[in-house]
Amino acid sequence: AHSQMGHSASYVQYSMAPCRVELRNLNARMQQKFQKSLRSQEYMGGGSETVQLPASWRPGNQLLAYLHEHKARVNQLVALPAHRHMFGSCSDDGTVRLWDATRLQGNAYVNRSKSMYNRNAGPVVSLAACEGGQSLVAATQDSIFVLRLDSAS
C-alpha cells in the first residue's frame, strides 16, 4: 500500500474544459500548417516579395493570426490604403485597433495592436476607411465618429 501512495503523490493531475483542449489542439495544428507553408515559400524563393492577390480571392478556413487584444467579438476589419501594411479592426469591446500586417508573419499567432482607441460608447459595430485611408469612420449603436490617423506613429 505504501508504494501505491508514493506513486500517486509523484504527479499532479488537473482537468481542463474540453473546449480549451480542442482550442489548444487546433492552434497547434494551425501553427504546424503555417510553418510548413512558410518552409515551402522559402524553398520556392517566394518568401520575400509581395504577392498581389487577384480581386476574386477570398480567405480560406486557415488561421492567419490571432488578434487577442480584443476582449469581445471582432465586427469588422478594414484595409488602410494610405498605410500600406496597416489595417483596422472594431469590436464589441468598444475599441478600434490598428494592426501592422508585417508583424503577422512568422510565428506571430498572438499579435499586439499598434494602437488602440476606446471611446467608451459601447460596441463599435462598423468601421470604414475614408480620405484615402488617412482616417477611419467608426459607428456605435448611437454615434458615428472619425479617427484621423497619425502617420508618425
Task: Give a structural overview.
Helices cover 22% and strands 24% of the residues. The protein is of the alpha+beta class and 153 residues long. The strands form two sheets. The protein has a four-stranded antiparallel sheet, with no helix packed on it. It is globular, with a radius of gyration of 21 Å. Keywords: Nucleotide-binding, WD repeat. GO terms for molecular function: nucleotide binding; protein serine/threonine kinase activity. One of its GO terms (biological process) is macroautophagy.
What overall form do the CA principal axes indicate?
A: globular
Order of helices and strands: HHEEEEEEE
CATH 2nd-level architecture of the largest domain: Beta Barrel
Q: Give the CATH level 1 class of the largest domain.
A: Mainly Beta
Number of E-type strands? 7
Biggest sheet: strands side by side, in what order? 1-2-3-4
Percent of sequence in beta strands: 15-25%
- Structural category is alpha+beta
Runs with pLDDT <50, length 5+?
1-6
Rg over CA atoms, rounded to whole Å, is: 21 Å
- How many separate domains make up the residues? 2
Set out the fold topology.
Layout: H1 2-8, H2 18-43, E1 74-79, E2 86-91, E3 95-100, E4 115-118, E5 126-130, E6 135-139, E7 144-148
Antiparallel strand pairs: 1-2, 2-3, 3-4, 5-6, 6-7
